[in-house]
Automatic annotation (TrEMBL):
<feature type="domain" description="TTI1 C-terminal TPR">
    <location>
        <begin position="759"/>
        <end position="923"/>
    </location>
</feature>
<dbReference type="GO" id="GO:0005737">
    <property type="term" value="C:cytoplasm"/>
</dbReference>
<feature type="domain" description="TTI1 C-terminal TPR">
    <location>
        <begin position="954"/>
        <end position="1028"/>
    </location>
</feature>
<protein>
    <recommendedName>
        <fullName>TELO2 interacting protein 1</fullName>
    </recommendedName>
</protein>
<dbReference type="Pfam" id="PF21547">
    <property type="entry name" value="TTI1"/>
</dbReference>
<dbReference type="InterPro" id="IPR057567">
    <property type="entry name" value="TPR_TTI1_C"/>
</dbReference>
<dbReference type="InterPro" id="IPR049362">
    <property type="entry name" value="TTI1_rpt"/>
</dbReference>
<dbReference type="Pfam" id="PF24181">
    <property type="entry name" value="TPR_TTI1_C"/>
</dbReference>
<feature type="region of interest" description="Disordered">
    <location>
        <begin position="812"/>
        <end position="847"/>
    </location>
</feature>
<dbReference type="InterPro" id="IPR057566">
    <property type="entry name" value="TPR_TTI1_N"/>
</dbReference>
<dbReference type="Pfam" id="PF24176">
    <property type="entry name" value="TPR_TTI1_2nd"/>
</dbReference>
<feature type="domain" description="TTI1 N-terminal TPR">
    <location>
        <begin position="13"/>
        <end position="346"/>
    </location>
</feature>
<dbReference type="InterPro" id="IPR011989">
    <property type="entry name" value="ARM-like"/>
</dbReference>
<dbReference type="InterPro" id="IPR016024">
    <property type="entry name" value="ARM-type_fold"/>
</dbReference>
<dbReference type="InterPro" id="IPR052587">
    <property type="entry name" value="TELO2-interacting_protein_1"/>
</dbReference>
<dbReference type="Pfam" id="PF24173">
    <property type="entry name" value="TPR_TTI1_N"/>
</dbReference>
């Protein structure tokens, strides 16, 4: 079609004459479409010549009175838009008439001030035609539209377009109406050609539009703050009309010439009364009103979910700051706040644009006016810090995140000038107190104290998965992004501020009150991390000279010393009475329940009227969080110093290991994470290497502190953690310390037995882990059935000697004698060389291996502690005995006498002990779950106490049967098995009549434990059929 277009105006006139005449006579849709088709065949040059002729029949259809079909009008408007888009309107009369006719198409016939209730398509056609008219107006013709005489017509058009943008539900119509406003105000940013306005034209346009400014601001603010379902395009377009209109009317370049405006007002007559005089007083009043509208716009768009809206907010701030900073002095603060609040936007394009705008603002305002940029920013920062605690309590998370982003933006824009701001005591106090209040932790959750580690060293092995720092719960916010923003603020303060000044200030707050201690520690950790430049990024400053390593090391050392001081490190994390009651006072938890039940209420841990008041739940939770935060600080300090932290290990490693063995689960997990941070920072491959490399001075501190339990009561914890994180190379170094532990146990068994037994338990677990071959080989070599034949030839002499030894030991003959000739049985002759060696020194007893000697010494203490009044101590001692047996199984000559010595005490436990000792009766998956359920102190009828007592400690008995074999067969069959079978018989009667609830009772669990452990015990002891017939019948 482009190649066959008509270029000659005469030919084009002849070609278009017939459809134009036909449309004038018969205004139908088909005739409009015919004319539109003919127009496509005419070139733009020929159509420019025939513009008025072609537009006449189309405008005639629009002006014809009477009702018309919407389809016809829409087709006419589309054809008019095509003609206007292909030509230029050079006649002012044509522009004026077309403008009026299009406005009439938009307004309602009954109420000209409101849009007509027409279809969405027709409205779009009218708006498109109006926009095309504004773009096709040629030269100075368009500026006559803004003469004061056109004020009523222009006002009507602006009102119609604003009403469409505000009230219309269709997004397309809203966007088109806002686009028409931009074109009408000569602020369109489309790629088409636009008329460039001179300063006089801009001034005339601003004077006319100032009359409509209140209505424009009100309507557009309502659109911007409308429902988010209207879409981001409508919001972005409304914002663009808002700030471009304000920038045109309130531009600094249009500061009024009052003389000219007075002359114009006199010449205009009554129309001049409608004109607004932009006097200084008017500008001042308008600036204050615009500040309120601007704050509303910023509040609705700063945290908008779509990034293009936030990007438009940056453009709004840039445009107004660059064009209206003098005319709108009250708006500079909110505009800067909007910019700094977006400087950390998650969208890279918004962040990049905001950074560029801030750079330009900083350069433009560096030496402008009475107030420099630093003054404005510091004043805004002070105001935000003052209002931050209140806003964090009253606003939602999105608003909180924006406020913190603004805070961080102020610091980034200030850059190195933060140091000068913080030298003001007023600013520093306000910022610090704001951080203290905002970072207040929620310490009322009872789960913090409840999360105890009953076996704190069970999961401390070298293969443990890396533990993460516990997520903190704050009082005034829950979103992790808010906490990240607060940490970034603290790091920025440390990066740009004077580190010595800031650290001293927050250390004073740390010492001032326990209310601020946790928050101050959090801030100190992040400030020092930021001072080292960890994770820092800048906006205006590519490089900044940070503090040197020596100064940073001195600051870190002073903070660590404050953290690990006696008053800040050794804080109670559990009720003091609970441990004492469980260890010393409660001989039976069931008895405690019964005793409490007889009183007025159930009280597990009775309080004493004498002595200091026990800590409250609030205080215990606060202590736990404080220790965790301080541990995190030590780990972060090590991360920023790297290998330079190694000299500080002598100060910090011992306290960290002390907390790794804490009973609180949160504290122990935080300490483990700190240990891993120390490993990474100091180039250790694992916590095991960290402990072994520093074992010398650690053991020295442990040895000293074991003798000072009143001052350093937690030295056994450090030793227990060292055992968990080490290998057999530690045993020679720790031998003397183990003897100190055993001596301390002998001297203070009535006060510290549970704590020291925990250390011995971790020691024995370590020995089993370090020397696993002997026990594993013993288990693999032990016969499963007595019918399995040994392939080696039978040595009759050795058999008789072994039989006599086993019989004597079983009857208690010769077990206490020290003569090696009696306690030792000569081995069978295997080779001639071995016989000669034994004949040369028959009376010399070989030296025991170190781990066997240690296990023997530990087991000797266990014999005496089996009758301890504390149930927890007895359970812990049984665990230790089981591990001792596993270690001593490779030295049978040492094991059997020790078993003989402990048998009376063990038998006493088997026949007369507390029911809650039953979880130790058997090995298997029931242990942890069963212990937790048992610790609920479930009520047990007195008729079942005998049955439960008869089952206690069978777990240790199973291990002894597996390792000692024939040595215990007679004792078990004579002293243990009858009690077990009779107990099962009595329990069978009650369980047979029990219902489904019985499976949840303690008696059921006890019965199940006995039945599951009795079989392996009998198998290991090779008990005969007569001894098992009754038990087998009850078990079946």
């Amino acid at each position: 079609m482009a190649d066959s277009q008509i270029d000659d105006p005469k030919i084009a006139f002849a070609y278009l004459r017939r459809p134009c005449v036909l449309l004038t006579k018969e205004p139908t849709l088909s005739n409009v479409e015919a004319l539109s088709g003919h127009l496509r065949a005419v070139s733009d040059g020929a159509l420019q010549v025939l513009q008025d002729y072609v537009l006449f029949p189309l405008r005639f259809v629009l002006k014809t009175p009477g009702p018309k079909r919407e389809g016809l009008i829409q087709a006419v408007l589309e054809t008019v838009a095509y003609v206007l888009g292909s030509t230029c309107v050079r006649s002012w009369e044509s522009v004026r008439d077309l403008f009026s006719e299009l406005c009439v198409c938009l307004c309602s016939p009954t109420d000209p001030g409101k849009p007509a209730p027409t279809s969405e398509e027709l409205k779009l056609a009218v708006l498109h035609c109006l926009d095309t008219l504004m773009h096709s107006a040629y030269g100075d013709v368009v500026f006559r539209l803004y003469e004061p005489t056109m004020l009523p017509g222009l006002g009507a058009a602006v009102s119609l377009l604003l009403a469409l943008a505000e009230e219309e539900k269709a997004r397309g119509v809203q966007v088109a109406a806002l686009g028409c406003l931009l074109s009408l105000f000569l602020q369109c940013d489309c790629p088409k050609m636009h008329v460039k306005a001179k300063d006089e034209d801009k001034r005339a346009l601003g004077s006319v539009l100032a009359t409509f400014l209140p209505g424009i601001i009100r309507a557009l603010s309502h659109v911007i703050s409308g429902d988010v379902r209207q879409g981001h395009k409508v919001t972005v377009k409304a914002m663009r009309v808002w700030y471009r209109t304000v920038g045109l009317i309130m531009a600094d370049s249009q500061l009024p010439n009052t003389e000219i405006e007075k002359v114009e007002s006199v010449q205009l007559g009554r129309v001049g009364e409608l004109m607004v005089k932009r006097t200084p007083s008017w500008r001042k009043a308008t600036s204050k009103r615009l500040m309120l509208a601007l704050q509303k716009v910023i509040s609705f768009t700063s945290a908008h979910q779509h990034w293009r809206v936030r990007l438009e907010l940056v453009c709004l701030s840039d445009h107004l700051l660059s064009t209206c900073s003098k005319s709108l002095p009250e708006c500079v603060g909110p505009l800067l706040e909007a910019l700094v609040g977006t400087v950390n936007d998650e969208e890279p394009r918004v962040k990049e644009r905001c950074g560029g705008v801030l750079d330009e603002v900083a350069r433009r305002n560096q030496a402008a006016g009475d107030r420099t940029l630093t003054d404005v920013l510091s004043e805004n920062l002070h105001g935000l810090a003052s209002a931050l605690p209140r806003l964090m309590r009253t606003t939602d998370d999105k608003r909180k995140l924006f406020l913190l982003g603004a805070f961080l933006g102020y610091l980034k824009v200030l850059g190195p000038r933060v140091d000068s701001v913080l030298t003001s005591a007023v600013h520093l106090n306000r910022i610090s107190k704001a951080l203290m209040q905002v970072l207040e932790l929620d310490v009322m959750d009872v789960r913090i104290v409840e999360e105890r580690s009953f076996a704190p060293l069970a999961d401390l092995g070298p293969d443990t998965d890396e533990a993460q720092y516990q997520r903190k719960c704050f009082l005034y916010f829950t979103d992790d992004k808010i906490f990240s923003a607060l940490k970034h603020i603290c790091r920025m303060l440390g990066y740009y501020g004077n580190l010595y000044l800031i650290v001293d200030h927050f250390l004073e707050l740390y010492k001032e009150s326990s209310v601020y201690r946790k928050q101050a520690a959090l801030v100190l950790n992040e400030i020092i991390t930021g001072a080292a430049g960890a994770g820092m990024e800048t906006v205006n400053h590519t490089q900044y000279s940070r503090i040197n390593q020596e100064d940073l090391k001195c600051v870190i050392l002073s903070v660590i010393e404050e953290y690990i001081s006696m008053n800040n490190w050794h804080l109670p994390t559990a009720s003091e009475d609970s441990d004492h009651e469980l260890q010393e006072k409660l001989q039976s938890p069931v008895l405690s329940v019964l005793t409490s039940h007889e009183g007025n209420g159930l009280q597990l841990f009775p309080t004493s009227t004498a002595g200091p008041k026990p800590p409250t739940l609030h205080q215990l939770n606060g202590n736990i969080w404080q220790i965790c935060i301080q541990l995190e600080g030590v780990g972060s300090f090590a991360s920023v110093l790297g290998t330079n932290f190694r000299p500080l290990l002598m100060t910090s490693l011992y306290p960290v290991l002390e907390k790794a063995g804490d009973d609180s689960l949160l504290v122990s997990q935080s300490a483990l994470s700190t240990m891993r941070a120390l490993c990474m920072a100091c180039d250790y491959h694992s916590p095991k290497e960290l402990v072994i490399s520093n074992a010398d001075y650690l053991l020295n501190d442990v040895s000293l502190n074991l003798g000072r339990p009143a001052i350093q009561p937690h030295a056994p914890r450090v030793l227990a953690v060292m055992f968990a994180h080490s290998d057999a190379s530690l045993l020679p170094l720790v031998a003397d310390v183990v003897q100190d532990v055993l001596m301390a146990l002998d001297m203070s068994y009535d006060r510290r037995s549970l704590q020291l037994c925990t250390v011995l338990h971790s020691l024995m677990k370590a020995l089993v882990r370090w020397f696993p071959a002997s026990y594993r080989d013993r288990r693999q070599s032990s016969p499963v059935s007595p019918h399995v034949q040994d392939p080696r030839p039978l040595d009759l002499r050795q058999f008789l000697l072994d039989y006599r030894k086993q019989k004597d030991l079983a009857e208690g003959i010769g077990a206490e004698q020290e003569d090696p000739d009696i306690t030792e049985i000569p081995p069978a002759p295997v080779a001639h060389d071995e016989e000669e060696e034994e004949d040369e020194s028959p009376d010399v007893k070989p030296e025991l291996p170190a781990h066997v000697s240690v296990a023997k010494d530990v087991m000797e203490r266990c014999i005496h502690l089996l009758s301890d009044p504390s149930m927890r101590v007895r359970l812990k001692v049984l665990d230790i005995m089981e591990l001792c047996v596993c270690v001593l199984c490779e030295a049978e000559n040492e094991l059997l006498p020790m078993v003989h010595r402990c048998w009376p005490a063990l038998l006493q436990r088997l026949t007369n002990d507390d029911p809650l000792a039953i979880p130790r009766a058997f090995r298997g998956p029931l242990d942890k779950r069963f212990l937790n359920e048992s610790l609920r102190f479930e009520m047990i009828p007195k008729s079942h106490l005998y049955e439960t007592n008869s089952c206690a400690k069978l777990q240790v008995l199973c291990v002894l049967g597996e390792t000692c074999g024939d040595f215990l067969r007679r004792r078990v069959s004579k002293e243990v098995l009858p009690r077990l079978t009779s107990s099962l018989a009595r329990q069978a009667e009650s369980s047979a009549r029990a219902g489904p609830v019985y499976t949840h009772m303690l008696a059921y669990k006890l019965q199940l434990a006995v039945l599951q452990g009795l079989g392996p015990l009998c198998m290991h002891l090779d008990l005969g059929e007569p001894s098992l017939s009754f038990a087998a019948a009850k078990r079946g």
